[in-house]
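To: structure desk
From: M.T.
Subject: fold request, one chain
Message: Could you run this one when you get a chance? Sequence is below, nothing fancy, just the single chain.
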Amino acid sequence: MDKLEQMVIYLIGIGNKKNPSFSPEVEALVKAGYYYSGGTRHYELVQDLLPAKHHWIPIKGKMENLVQKYRSLNASILIFVSGDPFFYGFGNTLKRLMPTTCLKAYPTFNCLQLLCHKKQVAYNELLAVSLHGRPWKKLDEVLRSDQSLIGILTDAQHSPAHIAQRMLRYGVDNYKMLVGENLGGDDEQISTLELKEASNYKAASLNCVLLIRTQSRKLALSQPDNTFKTLAGRPKMITKMPLRLLNVQLLELHKANTFWDIGSCTGAIAIDAKRHYPHLEVLAIEKRLECGAIIQQNCEQQQTSGIEVLIHDFFDLDLATFPTPQSVFIGGHGGRLETLIKQLDAYLIEGATVVMNTVLESSLNTFLATFGHLNYSLSDKMKLVIDDHNTIHVLVAKKNK
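Reply: Done. Structure tokens follow.
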């Protein structure tokens, strides 16, 4: 076929049926080729349609090595892909690794579109999420926004059962689940399940999921203090709701990607931060062992998933191994506030915001003096009194250039 300077990569979308039918244009391309590529399953589906003399390049291993192999061929290639190559597909990988190569795509329905068609679900409002080789973060964020229709690409660690279990654990029970298995194949199956049914469902390895909202679920920005589990014998050891809401505002989390809650205790600040800003990477750091279970219970009770809990002494952490925060709340410091601030400062970037609440004059003075010496801008001091509690100093420091 074409020489390297005219190299074209043809991306041919196929379904799950052996010997798929193609348009005349694609059929001519398939018959005329020599170099072909795709996954093992794709080869099984199209092998009989390829010329007797052909060379197949399996898509496996490191993508950089595979792309180098493509480049070395000095000819054009036909790559078979599932559905639409630019819907979480191999076309996106090629655009990233071979940006100057000419790509020509011949897509077909992706699996979520196919499932919608087969069940006659209008998908103009579909919000798609891929959990295939990815963490839970995006699904957590989407569920928090109460979308009416969510499509999910799954894998073995994020199966329909795992998805349903996670949703039920965090109280997200206002969806029903459609599971499409081996769509387009001879053994196709589509099941409509309640989440409790889905939590025990054994799906075929090739599947996708639709979540259809059964009723709207609008969450409050915060919950009353008495809905949080606290340390045994210390029911008042929680940042009160009015103060939590103020802290979330002062932390400027709308500008942040990562937030650290140091001395998290019950996790109340971390939870409210995540409720307001589902996109945030939230790390709750607490050294008391019993707080691990308390924070997890509160996350579930408050229907807030996606918070990373680290039970460890902050002073023993290698902070360089964690994503750099743009916002930090100091909820506890073990009497070593100056040391904590200096240790933290080494990893904070310009513009980072640090907030602390204290009733102690000594902590107030240490915060102001230490951040002042480290070239931070300090906001005007605020004092807050809630009910019959002590006066609370609300402190904010922002790192300068």
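Reply (cont.): The longest helix spans residues 361-373. Let me know if you need anything else for the meeting.
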